[in-house]
């Protein structure tokens, strides 16, 4: 007792001190970011507001990217589309800055993250409002998908980022016991990213944070559908980098069309692409010219599986969030709903009741549950999918309600829609919807639903609900996808220690987590002497040039001594190895010929 008592006191004192240190607020510098041109000041009226009317069909690629609010069609201005030569200049500037940043300390990189985190927490409303204006999503959806995910990533990098970028020691094996084996992680150089419009804040910060924290520079092409917000968010990054003394031009934001993206792929040291499978194939083809690594996070058609033994009201609420968040602007969105036949009628009834209570409208002009469709003419594509399903026997059983919308606003909005009697012959169950449609299909057994869920070209994520967690895990383990949530939806992405990505037409490679962070690095295998300079590598005499007559006998014995399955055989072989090495005047294999 006398021995353990001091250790117990020291342990308690350590815990108390750690707790008291947590109560001391950290000293994190504040940054100022000009937001005067991105917020409504109340001075605009119907008379002086400029309503933008985009062209129908394929938009011609010009030197300007026109920006407008999808929910109101109010004109926001334009951003300059970068030419291929300008893209190369951006990358060249980033490359020079990266040479300096590569030697930065993890302490400096963590300070950069803390400054960003402080600004994000203090300016949540501003960030969400800018995202809402540019994409049409509600403030709540922006908070869930933009703020929380980004804060979670920053917090994880602060806690664990340095640990996963330090050299990692590995076992050296039997033949290299005198060596030390390790993996080292070095910056690749300039990380390029081409990101989608659905989360304009997080999609910029996600690749930027991983790239900068691992010692790289970043050049990010934002979507032409969300360029206005992207350039404002860039100001936040610039201010935080300047506050820690980072070199100028370490991070760049660009926008444009096809030629801009192609030029970026041709110039950087790695490309991360978030978008459609069709464009992903073009990215791969272009990247093959310079043989740079590629991470593709593409479309999804995630299965939402509901077994009969669940708490129905809770799961229905989760299903609504999975299907309708940001008018379908959610990563790994639930797009195929499979419900056990025993609870199918009740599930449909409760979903329909909730959907009919959902109000759709301009998210910043009232209290609406769902905002606008971001991309021009996408609502027409959604209706085409619905029509195809109806023609093949499906039935609409519930739709949401529009708010106070003018006749000219119908194209930007699509009501949440519940469809039953669906099957896999319908396009709605096969192609990525990216919209607020809930197709519900019944199943009778676990084996059946596993087969249905795997019947897709996509393989991004899934969600499985059951009152028996082992059952849910067993189902999810047989689904061919990259992420799985058990009795929840999209929770995997909130665990930023986990990698994110899919298989099949959902892409390959991972961002987020340890794998995503290390994917921004040159991974180098290193072997060094464990007891240098006392034990060094010496080529055994029998296999020194010119090799001895018994060289192969020596190798045979050495292999069995190291890897033999029987301990007695290994000892016998080891004796043979020692004997051969001890022999004097070992003749070279070609000694007679030389004589």
From TrEMBL:
Cross-referenced CDD domains: ALDH_F15-22
Keywords noted in UniProt: Oxidoreductase, Signal
Domain of life: Eukaryota
One Pfam family it belongs to: Aldedh
Gene Ontology molecular-function annotations: oxidoreductase activity, acting on the aldehyde or oxo group of donors, NAD or NADP as acceptor
Domain Aldehyde dehydrogenase: 62-526
Signal peptide limits: 1-17
PANTHER family noted in UniProt: ALDEHYDE DEHYDROGENASE-RELATED
Family: Belongs to the aldehyde dehydrogenase family.
Protein known as: Aldehyde dehydrogenase domain-containing protein
Organism: Musa balbisiana (Banana)
